[in-house]
Amino acid sequence: MAKDAFDSALAGFRKWTETVPRADDPADDIEEAELLLDLMRQLGIDSPGALTKDGLDDLLLELYPGNYAAEDIDEAEQTLRVMRDLLAFLALSGTLPSARAKALNQKLDAIGPSFVEAVLADDDEVDIKEAFDLPDVLPPVRLPSEAELAATARTVPLIGQLLALATWLGDGRAVDENEDLTAADAAEAATALGLEERELPYLWRLALDAEFVELDDEETHAIPGELSSDWADIEDDEVLDVWDILFGLVLGTTFEVAAALDPRRARDLDMTGHGAGLAVLMFLARTQGLPVAEAAEITQEAATDELPAAQAEKAWQSWVRAHGDPTELLLDQMTAVGAILITEGIARLTPLGLMSIRDQLLDAEVDVPLLPPPAQMTPAHLFAMADAPAEDFEAEIAAWKAGRTPEAAARELLAFAADADAANRILAAGLTASLGAAAEAAWNNVLDIPELRGYAKATLAQLAGDDAPDLEPGEMVWMLLDGLVLAGWDDVDPEEDDLEFLLTELAGGLPAGREPEVFEGMWRSGHPDAAAVLTEIGNHHPDKNIAKAARKSAYKASTSRQV
Predict the structure, then answer these.
(1) Which of 12, 156, 283, 299 pairs as cysteine with 357 (C-beta 3.0–4.6 A)?
(2) What does the pLDDT look like over 413-463, one tens digit per residue?
(3) Distance (Å, rounded) from C-alpha 234 to C-alpha 229?
(4) Edge-to-edge order in the sheet of strand 290-291
(5) SS3 for 341?
């Protein structure tokens, strides 16, 4: 029985793969190609050579996700690589006209990110939260108002270029079956916009994908999109929605579009999915930023991760010699869209970039609270920034203090500290102490609060020039427990925590030979964390006698709180 066109295509693809070096197991690629060809049959076409752009859209965004799910992002990206290889084979074999193969590759670039999202929709492994091992809550971020963000978005260079391109079209310019301008028109457009000709294809694809440019009803001419015509009049929230879509396209397609221009060199490189990862790293770094050199290293490592070391370096250098470092291209586009600024070799997200990545984190169930203006911030807002990079935390402290007199700041801080947990109590007490003599009245006012009495006595003695404050044993124990909680002694994970550091912190607060006496004071103190700290000391202290004494006191602390 004769093979049908799909079986014949698979057999030819199998032989073709034997002549082309591959990063993945050829058997896996052939199996994936067979799956794609089987799904093509369901499009109702007679042969793979009849595949159209609409058919590719249905294949990858409807049929494939409706029947299969990728286990991880590598598997999803393998499908895209095999689809690209399959198109290359069909074109080389004459099954697919070269012009349509080019159009299908461009369509594949455009829908690739949507395909990955679709096949991984229920896959927790590629969730941002798990991919970056993020906690449930990240330090807050301050953003300008919607009106300020929208005003900035309206003026970013990339949108200016897209609007200029739409204006240049006038009443329309002819396009071919691939939705591309003629060579003469492309050269004219590049000159009009002040671009190099090689830069125009990327801008053209963005204009079409973001709908700044549309096709007429006959799909033979490109015309200014409705978005371009209405841009000056649309509402701020719509402006930000458009900007966010454009930023997503920059992150999701910059590498892929570059790879499509040189499929031979890109064949062994994984050029998908890295833009979003770099943006998240920049968000986590905040004002500290991400060094451009480090971003380039991350991209190279990710793009060549599946290759042996020698092949990885060869493939990467081949691309860089021909086209330059792709990270520079991505960062240039992120700058043009107004998402980052690069100063002295450090890339930092702008408020627009922070807004977009924050929204993505919220979608991944990672809360990133918004900070109010400094004048409206409470100490709770302020200390929510404690886990942010030190530069950000210090900047917020300075802004918060600038809007208050030292006396008012001291009162706010100590009122917060009275009801705070141990870690925030230490931070608040330390910041209050830094206010110096202006906080003296506030310290005197909290001498009758047990949680703060020790800190108040110590600071007032220091202000009076006395290096030896008259602290009661219970006050010293309370402050010791606060410090041990801040160090992490309330919840020790031997696999994650530095036990040597914890033991050093503990030894600094426990007089040698008097550990049982101090443990006795801890359980009697009424401190809410006493039982937890004593339990962890009992579980992890290497001295058996000290550990035993801690466990006894932990039991007493637990039972005393139940009475």
Answers:
(1) 283
(2) 999 999 999 999 999 999 999 999 999 999 999 999 999 999 999 999 999
(3) 10
(4) 290-291, 346-349, 340-343
(5) strand
